[in-house]
């Protein structure tokens, strides 16, 4: 029997955080934590709302817990125990500061399979972007997670500030034995547009990263090609073939998951179509996830023929770039991806 297709929920369970990252969409432009943590009764309501949606749609619930720093949520262990009692394994997207061997072992026992931490450049750049000392702290916690049996993932956010450092960062991540490495592009705050690379700069960056990944072929670190523009890059190199996929003209087979198999839940119950830009489509404290996902607001993010550039591209059903980067830059979800180099 085939496993059910997953439906992902990224749940921001708290806004509390030890860092004030320069590119954070919660604390950007000097914003402060404004939403209090929900009580467990509301958390239970949201969880069972999500489980019911997955049952109605015959999907397997797949959850990423984040914040803020999710370990700072006031009822974190009660909440994770609730997930465990409902058979939901999860990943955590968080910080290294509250991790130790005991915490990692407890997370594993409750169903945590992956813990993602961030490194945004080499030490000086990363500590400037996030918090002094966090570069070394992050590397130190890789072994802590692995010893507990949790996949240690390192994630980078790419901008013109750090993109030239990321190939060297790969060497460091591999040396420290991280299980996975990936990067995603910076979604700009209103005052951060100058940190977006040009299309040619981004293409050259992908070339450097691809060569670095090839250099480390056979190592114990898995390199996740998270950015959808990897599809275009590999297609142009003859390493991604769409001709062998039946009905590829009519089916959305890969690329941006927005409106297809993912939603984001904020600390006050607000549901976003995509976590990377302001895309509110409802509130799951008051409405069912089913009605939200199949409602008119979410339907606005499934109009694939509206893409100004991607609609006429042979890779439309496999890529579509990052619509949220386009939305942050232009206000239009369907505008051209500002880093896509395809003419």
Q: Would you kindly provide a written description of the structure presented here, covering whatever features stand out?
A:
It is built from eleven helices and ten strands. A ten-stranded mixed beta sheet has the order 7-6-5-4-3-2-1-8-9-10. It is α/β, with parallel strands linked by helices. Helix 1 (40-56) runs parallel beside helix 2 (76-85) and helix 6 (166-175) packs parallel to helix 7 (199-215).
Say what oligomer this is: single chain
Head-to-tail CA distance between termini: 44 Å
Helix/strand-derived class? alpha/beta
Number of strands: 10
Please state the overall shape, judged from the principal axes of the Cα atoms: globular
How are the strands of the biggest sheet laid out side by side?
7-6-5-4-3-2-1-8-9-10
| Cα Rg | 20 Å
Order of helices and strands: EHEHEHEHHEHEHEHEEEHHH
Overall average pLDDT: 92
Strand content: 15-25%
Share in helix: 25-40%
How many helices?
11
Give the biggest sheet. 10 strands, mixed
Unreliable stretches (pLDDT < 50, length at least 5) are none
Could you write a compact summary of the structure shown?
By secondary structure, this protein is α/β, with parallel strands linked by helices. Helix content is 32%, strand content 15%. Helix 7 (199-215) links the parallel strand 6 (180-185) and strand 7 (222-223).
């Amino acid at each position: 029997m085939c496993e059910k297709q997953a439906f992902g929920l990224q749940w921001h369970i708290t806004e509390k955080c030890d860092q004030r990252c320069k590119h954070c969409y919660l604390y950007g432009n000097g914003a402060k934590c404004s939403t209090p943590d929900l009580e467990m009764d509301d958390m239970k309501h949201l969880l069972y709302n999500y489980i019911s949606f997955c049952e109605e749609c015959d999907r397997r619930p797949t959850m990423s817990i984040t914040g803020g720093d999710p370990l700072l949520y006031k009822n974190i262990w009660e909440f994770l125990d609730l997930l465990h009692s409902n058979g939901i394994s999860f990943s955590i997207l968080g910080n290294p500061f509250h991790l130790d061997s005991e915490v990692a072992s407890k997370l594993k026992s409750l169903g945590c399979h992956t813990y993602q931490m961030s490194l945004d450049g080499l030490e000086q750049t990363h500590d400037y972007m996030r918090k002094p000392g966090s570069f070394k702290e992050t590397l130190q916690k890789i072994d802590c997670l692995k010893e507990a049996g949790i996949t240690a993932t390192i994630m980078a956010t790419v901008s013109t500030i750090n993109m030239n450092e990321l190939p060297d960062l790969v060497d460091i991540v591999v040396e420290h034995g991280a299980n996975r490495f990936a990067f995603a592009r910076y979604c700009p705050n209103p005052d951060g547009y100058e940190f977006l690379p040009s299309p040619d700069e981004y293409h050259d960056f992908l070339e450097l990263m691809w060569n670095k990944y090839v250099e480390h072929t056979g190592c114990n670190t898995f390199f996740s090609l998270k950015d959808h523009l990897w599809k275009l890059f590999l297609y142009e190199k003859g390493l991604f073939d769409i001709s062998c996929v039946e009905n590829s003209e009519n089916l959305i087979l890969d690329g941006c998951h927005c409106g297809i198999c993912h939603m984001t839940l904020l600390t006050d119950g607000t549901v976003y179509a995509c976590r990377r830009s302001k895309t509110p489509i409802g509130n799951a404290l008051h409405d069912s996830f089913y009605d939200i996902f199949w409602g008119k607001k979410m339907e606005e993010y499934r109009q694939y023929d509206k893409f100004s550039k991607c609609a006429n591209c042979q890779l439309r059903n496999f890529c579509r770039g990052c619509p949220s980067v386009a939305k942050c830059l232009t206000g239009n979800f369907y505008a051209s991806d500002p880093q896509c180099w395809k003419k």
